[in-house]
Fold this sequence. Notes:
By secondary structure, the chain is an alpha/beta fold. The protein has helices at residues 17-25, 40-57, 111-114, 170-181, 195-207, 222-226, 228-234, 242-248, 254-268, 290-301, 311-314, 319-333, 339-348, 354-368, 382-389, 403-408, 426-440, and strands spanning 5-9, 30-34, 62-66, 72-73, 81-84, 89-93, 103-105, 120-123, 128-135, 139-146, 148-151, 155-157, 186-189, 214-219, 237-241, 271-275, 306-309, 373-377, 396-400, 415-419, 448-453, 465-470. Strands 1-2-3-13-14-15-16-17 form an 8-stranded parallel barrel, surrounded by 6 helices. It has a 7-stranded mixed beta sheet with strand order 4-12-8-9-10-6-7, with no helix packed on it. Strands 20-19-18-21-22 form a 5-stranded mixed beta sheet, with helices on both faces. Helix 7 packs across helix 9 (254-268). The radius of gyration is 24 Å and the shape is elongated. The model has no long low-confidence stretch (mean pLDDT 92).
Amino acid sequence: MNKTKIVxxxxxxxxxxxxxxxxxxxxLDVIRINMSYADYDFCDDVITKLNQLNEELNTNVAIMMDLxxxxxxxxxxxxxxxxxxxxxxxxxxxxxxxxxxxFFSISYQSLVxxxxxxxxxxxxxxxxxxxxxxxxxxxxxCMVEKSGVLKAGMxxxxxxxxxxLHFLTEKDKQDIVYAHEHQIDFLALSFVHSxxxxxxVNDLLIQLNDNRISILTKIETxxxxxxxxxxxxxxxxxxxxxxxxxxxxxxERVPGIQKMIIHKCHNEGKVSLVATExxxxxxxxxxxxxxxxxxxxxxxxxxxxxxxxxxxxTVGKYPIEVLTMxxxxxxxxxxxxxxxxxxxxxxxTEEEGxxxxxAYSVATCANRLRxxxxxxxxxxxxxxxxxxxxRPSCPIVTLSSDEAVIKQLSLCFGVYGVKISEFTSFDKMxxxxxxxxxxxxxxxxHDKVIITGGYPFxxxxxxxxxxxxxx
Length: 471
């Protein structure tokens, strides 16, 4: 049972119910719907299928909705693709004219006023690079510095200038309302620049009276990296989006930033996720490269909570094989995780308190006694989150009567939820904890288990007991 979670983006290659079922059986924990491409009909279809499969398989796969964010895109072109060659002059307009080989328009009217001479425009994932050589009233004259293919809908960024885009777009607001109405578990916020952007979304969720959805902030810009401490503070988790981050910043900086953010999230008790090109070669091959295997393994060794698959499962030829391979790499890498180092790092930054102290003791005892599991009956999931932060080497089996709580824990390292009926007494809780564990995983005689939580239920707000049982 792997502790590092797997998120897979759903698209044409994985939308079929039987393929989605096989992906769940292969180890999928959370599905991701990218609202840059998905419409509500697609969302309805995927959500319906997932709900049916969760009931059929007795699973709790959660849903992440990735918002489009305040993006600038290339408007319509006369052809499906236009080739731009190095040294060529091309004009960029801010109206809605249909482009060709000599000009195109973009979706942000203030671009001309906000950009400076000699600054750059990067199109797509660094597929085309333009340098601004002249400015008119409503047009930028650019020279192509890096040749490539231009397509309608390509993202446009300027790493040299901070643009005054309003963070929460009308589309994103509509998508958040949709997420609220359809009980989505996680929102991933795109192109965040500051903690104020995150708080703007949080305010909207408060207006909707929604305390279910967790906010995951994507780190894609230099401004977000500079504000990382404040952003972590106001977020439920951080998603390191290496694709756009590698466009906004020199690509060689990304690995160091990834390690830094994972470490900060671990110390703050927030979940960390890493995305982009983990097994990109498997879009067209049923076997990964050695470099890709090392990439996944290094993220696991750093103690990341979850890894995300994108193109591999949206348009790739082998979505099931990708899940199987990812699970296999994680399983092997987790044997080499420096559990004691991660536990010590978490303890040195843990605030004084009963729950944190017991969580540390639980993780320490679980490692020393080689326990097969930690079982934590919970009302809110708080105990499981605190224990997860200390990275015990065994699974954390969380028992809850609230399906929403179980799904909210689906991104936490090592935490697996089991739906149960409401507890009425301490003795019943102990008995059901053991019986639920035996149903959830293979156990044998003399296996050691730690049971921990807060009692009486609904009365205490902290963890106040731990008990070691030998089966």
